[in-house]
Every structure is written in structure tokens, then in C-alpha cells.
Amino acid sequence: MKVKLVSNLLLKPVSKLWESVYRIRRSFYEYGIKKKEYFKVPIISVGNVTFGGTGKTPLIIWLVNKLEDDYKMTPVVLTRGYKGSLENKSGIIKGGQRFRSNPQEFGDEPMLISQRLKSGAVIVGKRRAQNLKKYFHEVLPDVVLLDDGFQHIQLYRSYNIVLFDALLPLDRYKTAPLGYLREGLTSLRHADAILISRSDQVDEEKLEALLALLRPYHRPDTVIGKFKYIPTGLYDCYYNKKMEVDQLKGRKVVALSAIASPEAFYKMLENAGAEIVDKIDYPDHHFFSDEELNSILLSATKNDALVMTSEKDMVKIRRVSQDPRILYLNISVDFLSGEQEFLSGIKKVINLDYQ
């Protein structure tokens, strides 16, 4: 306890400095000292103020489906392509090209998003504005989604969505290195919508405590929404549905993951009635080898089990193995509250009539 207290005292000045640097950086763009890049198209940012996974990619996929299917628009997703070889360059995956792209070049999350695109494209590379300029006339998007964009303030956006994970302990809401905040909560005054992921996995008391923590920092008109993830089926590496979720009940599975929140993945499998006989974790964005997958399949054979993984992991696994014993759990976003208010805000910025 004493060691932790001393550590906190030493880290507090660093944390304050970190917060000040981000605040000054934002003020430079707010007051025009540094210039933002503008495009004649609505730009919707999906980001967070914490380190780690908050569920941005599933929400972007949900938005892509809304934009394409319900609003008949052509979206482009701007993303960094973390750990892909194109992260420091640029690349584009157009709708319908998912089998021709390599996750080692583009990164696993861009590949995952591209699987759901019917039109439009995913543009990869950390110089987002430069890359959008490069490919804009090739795609001619109606709307741009900026992945992990809340701190990417050099690019003007029409709507700021900020995600929080309901499972993150409240005592972690301190600026790094004391806690998990990338920047101070004062930045939430720029948020148009605050969405809480995995809201079904905590009690109302925890949710209310989180909202109370955030309330002093966001605007009164900021939309507040809560959502959960629901499994919709088990699919093979060719994205063919092989089983319904209820068919997992009583089945032995080896749970394989290289994602930010593996425990949430395991809980979803257990809630579906699966019996997890082995849990195999790798670091987020890990690329699987032949040897690793052969060892995992051997474990599955010994236990008469399926290998269950996430969709994000499957885009990497399928480059190495197409074994039919490896299936991924497809998930979808399901709003618990705030969906209509959130969609009304989206419709405003993309210039659609709304109720």
C-alpha cells in the first residue's frame, strides 16, 4: 500500500503534464494556430479517450451497414492499419475485394471492416488526411468514417462519437501513466455522442457511476447511448454460416483469441452454453503461424472440440489454415438505449431527413 502511494505521488506530475500536452494540442487547432484539413463530405469520427479496446470496430461495421443498406450511401473508412506493413504508407481495399487482400499488409481490423463492405472502401495508413486526398476521386464517398479518430484532430469531422467500455474499473479513469486515459476527460466537450459498450455485463449501479463521472465534462446536448454485443452465428473461414448460436450448447470448444478483451469473448461463448476446455490467448493483433495452429488443432482433436475464435482473428487464421474445425463467432451491435437519438444525429450530418 505504501509503495503504491509513493508510486502514485511520483507519477502524478507526469500524468498532469501528459494531460496538459493534449489540452494545449487541442487548443492549437481550436484557435486556428494549427490548420485543420477540410473535405466536402461528412466525416464521422469513432474514437475513445482510453487505451485498449472499447468496441470501435463492431460499431463501425454497424454504421457501415446502416449507411449502405438503410441510407443507400457509399462509405469510406479511414483507419491506421495497426501492425500492417502499409501503416506508414497507404493502401485501399474496395468493397468486394476482401479475398484479394492480405492482413499482414492492411492489418486485421481493416480486413474485418472490409468484409462487410458492399461498396465504398477502407483506406489504410496513419496519414489519414493525405490518404483521403489520394484516393478520394477513386471512390467518391458520400460519407467518411474515421476509425480511432478522436485524437486525430488535424482532420475536421462533422460528428464525434466517443466510446467507453462498461467493464473498465472506475479507478482507471486517470490520465496515463496513473490510469488508462489517453487524454483528460475535459476533451469530452467535443463529443456529440457518448456510447457505452458491454452495458449488459455490469449492473445499473456501475453504469450510473460511470455516467456520473463523465457528466461534468460533456455538453448537455451530447447523446448518451448504451449497447451490447450479441452473437449471430458460427461461420467458417469462407464466411459461410455453419451453425446457429444455440447449437453451441453443450459443445466442447477450444477458445482462441488475439484480441484486446478476450474475457468478454469467453463470456459470450459460455453464455451460449459452450464448454470451454482450453483458453489460448495471444497479444492483440498477433499473426498466427502454422505451428501454433497445428498445436491448437491437436488440442481440439484430443478434447473432441471445435476451435472457436473471433472474426478479427479469422481474417489472419484463414491465410494459414482453412481447417473446417476452426469457426468464428459472428457478433452484432444491439442498442439498449439511445439508438434513435444517436441515429438522428447521424442523419443530420449526412443531410438526410430524420424524425
| Arithmetic mean of pLDDT | 90
What is the distance, rounded to the nearest whole angstrom, between the alpha carbons of the first and last residues?
A: 55 Å
In DSSP terms (H or I, runs of 4 or more residues), the helix count works out at 10
User: Portion of residues in helices?
Assistant: 25-40%
- Overall number of strands: 13
CATH class of the largest domain: Alpha Beta
User: Order of helices and strands, N to C?
Assistant: HEHEEHHEHEEEHEEEHEHEHEH
CATH architecture of the largest domain: 3-Layer(aba) Sandwich
CATH fold node name of the largest domain: Rossmann fold
Gyration radius (Cα, Å) is: 21 Å
Q: How many individual domains?
A: 2
User: What is the molecular shape?
Assistant: globular
List unreliable stretches of 5+ residues: none
Largest sheet geometry: 13 strands, mixed
Derived structural class: alpha/beta
Beta percentage is: 15-25%
CATH superfamily of the largest domain: P-loop containing nucleotide triphosphate hydrolases
Tell me about this structure.
The structure is a single chain. Helix 4 crosses helix 9. It is globular and about 65 Å long. Strand 7, helix 6 and strand 8 form a beta-alpha-beta unit. The chain has ten helices and 13 strands. Strands 1, 2, 3, 4, 5, 6, 7, 8, 9, 10, 11, 12 and 13 form a 13-stranded mixed beta sheet that branches. The protein has two domains: about 200 residues, P-loop containing nucleotide triphosphate hydrolases (Rossmann fold, 3-Layer(aba) Sandwich); about 90 residues, 3-Layer(aba) Sandwich (Rossmann fold). The mean pLDDT is about 90. The chain has about 350 residues and is α/β, with parallel strands linked by helices.
